[in-house]
Structure formats: C-alpha cells, structure tokens
Predict the structure of Thioredoxin reductase.
Amino acid sequence: MADTDVIVVGGGPAGLSAALFASKNGLDAVAFDTDKTWMHKAHLFNYLGIRSMDGDVFLDRAREQATADHGVTLHEETEVTAIEQDADGFVVTADGEDHTAAYLVLATGANRDLAEELGCAFTDEDVVDVDVTMETSVADAYATGAMVRAEEWQAVISAGDGAAAALNILTKEKGEHYHDFDTPADV
Ligand SMILES: Cc1cc2nc3c(=O)[nH]c(=O)nc-3n(C[C@H](O)[C@H](O)[C@H](O)COP(=O)(O)OP(=O)(O)OC[C@H]3O[C@@H](n4cnc5c(N)ncnc54)[C@H](O)[C@@H]3O)c2cc1C
C-alpha cells in the first residue's frame, strides 16, 4: 500500500496545477520542488484571465491556493534524487527518504533526467513522449509542461498539462470520466 495517491515532482505551473486538481478532488497529493522555476524570470501578460502579474506573485498565489485552499502537501526546497517503479506504484527518494505513491506526475521543466531514469520514451525532438492525457510510456507516470515540448513554453500551457494529468488520474480512480465542474450558488 502506497503512502499517498499522487506524488508530483516540480512546483512550477505544471506541478502545482496537477497537485491542486488531484487534492481538490479527494486524492492525497504530495509535491516536491527546488524552486528553480522559470516563473521567477517571467511577468505574465498572456495568461488568460490575468491582465498583468509578476511571476513571483503568481507563484505565491498558486502555492497558497494549492496548499492552504486545497490541501496539497508541498515540500519546498526539496530535490527528488531518484524514482523507481515497484509493484505498488512509484518509490520517490527525496532528502534521503523514500516516499511511495500509486501515481507519479513529473513537472520538472526543461530537466528531463528523472523521466529518462524511469525509462519513459522520448520523441525524435528529445522531449518526453506523452499522449493527450499527459501519460508517458510508463503506465501511471505522467509528464507535463516544458519537459514534453521542444518549444511553445508558456505558463498557461503547463498549467493545462497539469490539470489534464490529474483529471486522467481521477478518471482512472473513479472508473468513469471525471469532470471538475463547480457551480456554487453563493459565488
Ligand atoms: C526569461 C523567461 C521569461 C518568460 N516569460 C513568460 C511569459 O511572459 N509568459 C509565459 O506564459 N511564460 C513565460 N516563460 C515561460 C514559463 O516560465 C514556463 O513556460 C513555465 O515556467 C513552465 O512551467 P513548468 O511547470 O513546466 O516548469 P518550471 O516552471 O520550470 O517548473 C519546474 C520546477 O520543477 C523543479 N524541479 C526540477 N527538478 C526537480 C527535482 N528533481 N526535484 C524537485 N523539484 C524539481 C524546478 O526547481 C522548478 O521549480 C518565460 C520563461 C523565461 C525563461
């Protein structure tokens, strides 16, 4: 039995989005991040719904939304150094400790080393090969954001990739297509 449902490696837009969607919809989600996200260099004018926002402000809000609002466990300044697959899912090593999960979401930006070590297939462009749900050639392991594209690197695309991965995991867990639709009367 794994420690948690979903482990996310990376806390940029892709990783935080995946973790948020998973945790908001009832899965235990644990994320690890070394805070080297390109968002520290960005100022957003092109993220739909956000007219102008510094990348650092975006990150603060995204982290708060994922953790305080939706229950993600975020290990900041914590590097994942190894990942293996076993009969129960994935064993992720960080700070010398092993953490286990049924599902894995990789969101490590332009660094694709962990995906390579895990044995994920790569495309001719040397990026991680995924289908439209962001699942890699390794079952139940997903790759999202900059690591699956040679170009077209944009925050909004990474956030969408993370959401797609989490919704596919939720679909597998619930046994039917899962939609995260909120229609509250009071907002
Ligand atoms: C100068 C510059 C300006 C930009 N301006 C814009 C812009 O105006 N608008 C826009 O939409 N996009 C912009 N971008 C692109 C945008 O920043 C990226 O598309 C986006 O950050 C990619 O998100 P991601 O989650 O895929 O990866 P990243 O944001 O790179 O996040 C990956 C995270 O994973 C962590 N990580 C990596 N390996 C490990 C590990 N082993 N263990 C734990 N954590 C790990 C990293 O530290 C990092 O925090 C800009 C990029 C740059 C370089």
Observations:
- The radius of gyration is 16 Å.
- Strands lie at 4-9, 29-33, 43-44, 53-54, 73-76, 80-86, 89-94, 97-106, 141-143.
